[in-house]
Amino acid sequence: MTNLGFRYFAKDNGIDIVTAGVGDRYVLEKMLEGGYNIGGEQSGHIIFLDEATTGDGQLSGAKVLEILKNSGSKMSELASVMSRFPQVMINVRITPKVKEMWKNDREITGLIEKHEAALGEAGRILVRESGTEPLIRVMIEGKDFSQINEMAIEIAEKIKSRSSKR
Question: Which of 2, 100, 156, 166 makes a 20 to 30 Å CA pair with 94?
């Protein structure tokens, strides 16, 4: 769920990125498979595999301080090297009996596909079930907040209406 601005920053700077499923264990899995030494999630869980196999906030803070010292830059300068895209996240509460149903509902998947086509390369949509709560998370990001907000609301409402009919 890393911000799309990071992908653009990486591409513009010749940095290859690999994506993994949501969760530290999936990030670590990809890191071990590919021999990568840094990975993380938007939540702030950053894994420095040369140092540890789990995210560590204190280690991440120390690494930021190290970068500040070595670069001679201010934090505000470092933070400005990447543009963040607006993101909208809507959680839709579901019951266990409708778990996974949205993936096979053509009205829901068709709406998602329609909005993905409208966004093109300038945005993305991620719809997934929470692994810890009875929720479907609808996350959309793009350059135009109004557009992605409307799309997220429409998808969330479609999921609510379709799941209540089951």
Answer: 2
Residue whose entry in the numeric block shows the structure tokens 């998602």: 112
3-state secondary structure of 41: coil
Residues 93 and 66 in one domain: no
Domain that holds residue 36: 4-79
Average pLDDT over the chain reads 90
Q: Tens digits of per-residue pLDDT, 41-70?
A: 877 789 999 998 888 889 999 999 999 999
- Please give the pLDDT value at position 162: 87
* Tokens 């906030």 found at: 57
126: helix, coil or strand? strand
Dihedral class, residue 61 (left if φ above 0, else alpha if ψ from -120 to 50, else beta)? alpha
Residue 78, pLDDT above cutoff 70: yes
d(CA 70, CA 72): 6
pLDDT at 148: 97
Q: What is the CATH number of the domain that holds 44?
A: 3.40.120.10
pTM beyond 0.85: no
Go through the chain and tell me how many residues it has.
166
Largest CA distance in the chain: 59
